[in-house]
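Replying to the earlier thread about multi-chain prediction with a worked example.

Input:
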Amino acid sequence: MPPATDAGAALVVLDLLGIFVFAISGALVAVRKHFDVFGVLVLAGTTGLGGGFLRDVLIDATPPAALADWRYLLVPIAAGLVTFAFHPTVGRLERVVNLSDAFGLSLFCVTGALKAVEYGLGPVPAALMGMVTGIGGGMVRDLLAGRPPEVFSGNLYATPALVGAGIAVGLDHLGMPFGVVAASGFGVCLALRLLAIALDLRAPKPRGPANV
Amino acid sequence: MPPATDAGAALVVLDLLGIFVFAISGALVAVRKHFDVFGVLVLAGTTGLGGGFLRDVLIDATPPAALADWRYLLVPIAAGLVTFAFHPTVGRLERVVNLSDAFGLSLFCVTGALKAVEYGLGPVPAALMGMVTGIGGGMVRDLLAGRPPEVFSGNLYATPALVGAGIAVGLDHLGMPFGVVAASGFGVCLALRLLAIALDLRAPKPRGPANV
Amino acid sequence: MPPATDAGAALVVLDLLGIFVFAISGALVAVRKHFDVFGVLVLAGTTGLGGGFLRDVLIDATPPAALADWRYLLVPIAAGLVTFAFHPTVGRLERVVNLSDAFGLSLFCVTGALKAVEYGLGPVPAALMGMVTGIGGGMVRDLLAGRPPEVFSGNLYATPALVGAGIAVGLDHLGMPFGVVAASGFGVCLALRLLAIALDLRAPKPRGPANV
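Result:
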């Protein structure tokens, strides 16, 4: 990962921004499920941090970064409280939330994949861990809210994350500088995800009736 | 954690008691869902031990204590079998179960938080881990039983655990002796939780209709 | 675990076969839930690998083997794609899938239990980890698919895994050679599970109406 320089500081700020937008999507789901304020905060926290927790537990980077740095806990709490108080406004901004979510996804798939590489995983599992970092928080959110994971419902969401993570891992493997690696993975994931939203691209579903 | 003295032995007994009452609440949910005897035992086990497992995985204290000491496995099995055999009686005692549950919650939030401190977490994440230890088992129970986590449904449950854990971490941080730390955190959590049950205190819910 | 010999190679092949049949059962559930191709792949992967992941996280054998060896990722992907493309045919073969599943269960309960022993767990928790390895993937599958865990629904499934794992751990504890240990645990679990399917053996359910 980057050294403790301007690039490093910028990455932390981006990371916190990504957590913030994910946390808002979790808090909105909790409001719609009529959970209490605590449920809103927990769904904000698990959506914002869950993907990173899953990754850190699997690659043995525990305790997860978010438990070692209080800023990572403050951000989802702030997102949860804002959504709790102003949910009609936040709900109307859902299109903005969706676009921000694409930003968070693109960021997390790259940082997650590179962290897995740093912890010694091979290219294929590292790319998979990048995808898990991007989509894991939303999956935990849907589990806790008692609804089927949205990521399986058709609109292309996991694929951009996997492609972005794969590109980052591949370029890193080729020895490219960090800036190129990160920008390429991030850019490709973001472009694919925005395209998927704009054109309503859908992953193929099984054809024909399921044999039950 | 305390040394292997009388205090240590007392803490183990309290811990096992806490696991027992949590396990009974899990087994009752399984009975009402018409799960088989195995489902009753698994829900007893995950409810009794799940919070501690979550904490231990997150703070890297694996394998969890419950896997290293067979007494920790025996207790939820006993609770599950008792509930399976005598569920009409146990079900009628639900008020007693609820009060015992408050005792387990108060105990686990304190022991969980202090264990996290011992493993090097800062005060804020340690208090959070205390809350997770207290409420995690019930959340896993509700996930496995396919119902929304009860902890989000309104009655004050997580807040007492977070406050109790925070008090324990804070006093420990100030260098207070273990007895004072533990008794204060435990007592405050228990008092808040019993008040919440007695007065039906409820966490605030989002106001106004959710914008879907 | 066995050395890198013919026995070791045979064990890897068996392990991959077990993952394959588990992954197919996960993919079939996803098809019936109308998940998209990505959901089919994720359910194939979590069903095939989830039990081992749970075990490895709990016994601190992270990163899980499946993340260190790309063959373990390829197998569930292949199973998922095959099921996605040919699900009417695969669905009709469900009886074959169920029998193969018994094979996977018998294999995983033994390898899981012996791995836990290798990582220092005592006999009782090691047998429990063997059972978790066998049934965990299916439980994660049912959670993600939003249905109650099938393993709680009555037909004897977890019990054969626990008995097989217990036998393997017990014989290993007595110093028996690996072949005897593995064959006995595997054989007993398989025989019990096949009997349970053939005779529709059911675990007891709570008697009388649940007191709600």
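Residues 6-32 of chain B form the longest helix (27 residues).

Feel free to reuse this layout for your own posts.
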